[in-house]
Amino acid sequence: MNLQIVIPTAAIVLATVPLAIHIALSPSPPPATVETPPDRPPTETPAVPARRYGLEAAVTEVLQTNRCVACNLSGADLGNRDLSRIDLSKANLSQTNFNDSKLINAILAQSNLTQATLQQAQLQGADLKRASLERANLSNAELLSASLSQANLSHAILKNAELRDADLTKTRLNHANLQGASLYGALLQDADLTGADLSGADLRYANLSNATLTGANLANARLDLAILPADFQGYTGKPEY
Description:
By secondary structure, this protein is mostly loops. Helices cover about 15% and strands about 0% of the residues.
């Protein structure tokens, strides 16, 4: 064996032993810390646009929700639509078109229907208490059992309207056109019918106690079994041909 080679090799091996022992006994370095990026601010939800005001927005609300309390629908065209059970109480409906529309059991209490057109509208069972219908056109409208107590129908057109069993207590009907209207069994206590045209109207079984009929036209009206004001004098209810 060549000692000149063995001795240096052994010396190298012996020199590395302490280093290996030191490495083995040295504590492991802590794991590297991974820096997380700062939290991003949460994505903001787009704000819901504020409710648009105006006629177009009000009409949209009516058609989507069947409700528009105290809103402004003046001059809107809501003709030939099914609006049964709609709630339009206290709404501004002046000059609004409801021709041929269904408003069965609709809530229109205290609404403003001045000069509105409701020709041939179906308003059976509708709530129109204290509503303003001055100069409104309700020709041929169906108002069977509707509530119109304390409403203002002065100068309104109700020609051939169906008002059987309607509640018209304390209602203003002065100078209203009720030609050929059916008021069979209607409640008209304390109603103001001054100058109203009731010619050809059916008032059988109607209650007109304390109603004002000054200057009213009752030509050819049917008053069979109607309850008339105590001071009523004039037309007896017999047709005049």
